[in-house]
Amino acid sequence: MTDHLFERAAIIGPGLIGSSLSRALRKAGVVKSLVAYDKNPATSARAKEIGVVDEAATDFAGAVSKADLIVIAAPVGAIGEIASAVNDHAQSGALIIDVGSVKGAVAEAAAQLREDISFVPCHPVAGTEQSGPDAGFAELFDDRWCIITPLDRPDEAYKTAINKAKTLWERIGAHVEFMDPAHHDLALAVTSHLPHLIAFTLVGAADDVESVAQAEVVKYSAGGFRDFTRIAASDPIMWRDVFLKNREAVLEVLGRFSEELAVMQRAIRWGDGEALEKAFTRGRSLRRAIVDAGQETAEPNFGRDKDGQ
Amino acid sequence: MTDHLFERAAIIGPGLIGSSLSRALRKAGVVKSLVAYDKNPATSARAKEIGVVDEAATDFAGAVSKADLIVIAAPVGAIGEIASAVNDHAQSGALIIDVGSVKGAVAEAAAQLREDISFVPCHPVAGTEQSGPDAGFAELFDDRWCIITPLDRPDEAYKTAINKAKTLWERIGAHVEFMDPAHHDLALAVTSHLPHLIAFTLVGAADDVESVAQAEVVKYSAGGFRDFTRIAASDPIMWRDVFLKNREAVLEVLGRFSEELAVMQRAIRWGDGEALEKAFTRGRSLRRAIVDAGQETAEPNFGRDKDGQ
Prior knowledge:
Radius of gyration of chain A: 21 Å
CATH topology of the largest domain in chain A: Rossmann fold
CATH class of the largest domain in chain A: Alpha Beta
Helix content of chain A: 40-55%
Oligomer: homodimer
Distance between the termini of chain A: 44 Å
CATH superfamily of the largest domain in chain A: NAD(P)-binding Rossmann-like Domain
C-alpha cells in the first residue's frame, strides 16, 4: 500500500518544528523520502544522524530542486530570503509551505514566487520551549490547530496545492483552519505573541529587584514564577523575528494589556477588593473551555507533580 | 512505635492547602488525630467524608480548645479574625501556624496573642490552581520550600514552638527557611504575587480584543496563552486578599515590571532586534537553575504532552 502525497520533501531548517514535521510526515507515510538543509551544516547532519531525514544536503539548490514538497521551517525573519532562493531552484509543480508564527510578512514573500510553484503559508500552533533536531517529536501536532492563510490566487493548480497542504496537516493529526493573514496575526498576537513577551519581560524583571537574590527567585519559583520561565526559555532568534514582523498587532494587544494592568494597579492601590475579586473570577471558565477543547491537560499543575496525584 | 509531635490538630479551613496538610501530617505520623472546622460546614463535612480528618467540628471553640496544633489555612484577609478567636479558646501551650502567602499582616496578628500560646507564621510555597478538600494531596509539600517568619519573642517556649514548626514541615518533605516578614513579602511579590497578577490580567485582557473571538483564544491557546490560564484559575478570594494585604511590595515590583515592559514596547516599535534578542536570552539560564534546584520538571511543555515524548 502506498498513499504518499509527496515523493521527496526538503526540510529547510530541521529544528524543533522542522524535525517534528519530518518525523510526523514519515510516520504518517505522507512523504517517501526526506532531505534536510540548514544554513548550519551541523544541524542537518545531526538530523540525518538521528534518523529524522534520509539525507543531509550541504547544497541548497540540490536539496530543493528535486523536492515536490519544500518546508521552510526557519525564523520568520529569514523566510523572505529563503523563499526567493526556493524560487530560483524549485521544480515546476512544487508545493512550498512554511511554519512561521507571523503570516502577513510571509504572504508578501509568497506572492512574489513563480506561478508554476505554489507557496501555501501555514502556521501549526504547537511547540515546546526547546530547540534543535533532538527536541522534535512526531506527535507535536496531534490535536493542535494549523492555520493556513492562502494567497489570493485563482488558478486551479493553487487550489489543488491548498488542498494538499490541508491534507498533509490532517494526516499528521492536526486540525486545519483557514484565515486571512491580518486576522491570523492579530489572533496570534493575543494567544501567543503577547504571552511570550510578558513571560520574557517578567523573567527579565525578576533580576531587577536588588534586594531579592536570584537564589530566592529560584527557591520560591513554585509560587507561580516557574510557569513563566517555560515560554521565556524559548528560542530568542525566533521570537525576536516574531516581534519585528508582527509589530502593529503586538503593539495593539500590548496596549490593551497595559490598560488592564493599570486598572488592576489602581484597584490594589485603592484597596478595591471587589474589583480584584471580580477580575480574578474570569480565569477559571476560560481555562475550563481550553481543557474541554483538548488544548490543555485537566491535571492540576499541568500534571508535572505526578507522584502527587 | 510512636513519634507523634502532636496529639490533636485542628485544621481551620480544610481546602487545598489545609486538606493537603492534613493528609501529609497523618501520612508522616506527625499528629495522632485531626479535626476540621470551616465557616462553611459542608467543607469540613466533606473533609471528614473523604477521610482527610477524623472529625468535622461545627463548633469553633470545641475544635480549637482540645488541640495542641492549630492550623489556620484560610485566606490571609481572614487570619487576623481567626487568630483572635483562637486566642479566646486555645489551650495553654498550643502551637498555632498559618499557611498564608503574606506574612507582614500575619505577624501583626500573631503578636497580639496570649503568651502561653505560640503563633509561628509559616508559608509553604506550594499549591495548584484547584480549590477545596478534594483537590488536596499529601505530597504537595514534597521538596517545596516553607518560609517561617517567627515573631521576635525571647521566651524559651516560643523557641521550642519554632523548632516544632520546623520539624513539622521537614517531616512532610519540605525545606525550611527563616526570614523576616518584610523580606518574605517582597521576595514572594516577585516569585508569586506579580506572576499571578500578570496572569489574571492577561487572561482578562484576552476578552477585550473585540475582533478576536473567545473560540479563537481557546483554539490557539497552545501558542502560549494556555500556560497563563493555569494560575489565573486560582482561588479569587485567596488572591484578592494577597493583593490587599501585600499592597506595598506588589506595587513596587509591578512598577519594575511596567518599566521593563515599556522598554520592550519601545524596542518593538523601533524595530530594535538586538535589544529584543538580548532580553530574550536571559530566560533559558534561569529556567535551567530552577529545574536544577528541583523546583520544576525538566520535561518540555511541563511534561503535559506525555504521549509526545
